[in-house]
Amino acid sequence: MSLPHAVSVSPISVAVADDHPAVLEGLAAVLEHRGGFKVGARASTAQEVRALVEREAPQVLVLDLMLREEDGLALIKDVVARSPTVRLVVFSLQREEVYAERCLRAGAHGYVMKQEPVDTLFAAIRAVAAGGLAFSPRVTALLLGSVSGAARKSTGGYAQLTDRELQVFRLTGLALGSRQIAEKLGVSVKTIEAHRENIKNKLGLESGPALVARAALWVRDGGSG
Question: What φ, ψ does residue 119 adopt, rounded to 5°?
């Protein structure tokens, strides 16, 4: 009697994007040697990410949300538009209660904070590759609460900012002035000033310098302040 042949399962193909070279190479090595994934393309800029998803079409893209001055939410939307089959796991220092829901709306399938054990990232990659979603229990509760609008009100602070306001806030923290931000986003200076005024009101800040100082501190702390 002949024995049945073992079924060969190909490893999940993963691409990695992070703007810190040491983190990029270290993460790729961990995913390959400990996670058992097939890590192909690597990217350190948004432009490289756009090129690799079209060229490589990995099953899963592990993406740092903040690639220098690029808006991570806009990049997620762009990746989804360019390669709808790619599954996205955001791997970030940014607070999940501020960004996870935004990333899901933009088209991401998972969100893992860099403070989590690496096994959490492994599990997230496998879950999204299988067609599921991967968010922490805390984020899941926030997402469920957001159906009634409760989550954003309860978390307050930065979670109250719209996606565009959060983008302007981050660029302010990177020491860009209103005119520079306007040019980068393709809008008028007046529009940026209106966003900055809204941000000040929502965060309870009394002046432009106070806004710049708060934004710089937020960027320094990796969006975790």
Answer: -60, -30
Helices (H), 34-162: 46-55, 72-82, 96-106, 118-129, 137-146, 150-155
Phi/psi at 106 (5° precision):
-75, -20
pLDDT of residue 153: 47
Contact 89, 111 (CB under 8 A): yes
Check residue 152 and give its pLDDT: 47
pLDDT in tens, 119-154: 999 999 999 999 999 988 777 777 766 654 544 444
The runs of H, that is alpha helices, within the chain are 21-33, 46-55, 72-82, 96-106, 118-129, 137-146, 150-155, 163-173, 178-185, 189-203, 208-220
What does residue 88 show for φ and ψ, rounded to 5 degrees?
-115, 125
Rounded to 5°, the CA angle 154-93-157 comes to 25
Which DSSP letter does residue 85 get?
Answer: T
Q: What is the distance between the alpha carbons of residues 215 and 225, in angstroms, rounded to a whole number?
A: 10
In angstroms, rounded to a whole number, what is the distance separating the alpha carbons of residues 116 and 62? 14
User: How many beta carbons lie within 10 A of that of residue 219, not counting itself?
Assistant: 18
For residue range 29-76, list pLDDT tens digits in order.
Answer: 999 999 999 998 899 999 999 999 988 889 999 999 888 778 888 899
Which domains are seen in the chain, by residue range? 13-146 (3.40.50.2300), 161-220 (1.10.10.10)
pLDDT at residue 27 greater than cutoff 90? yes
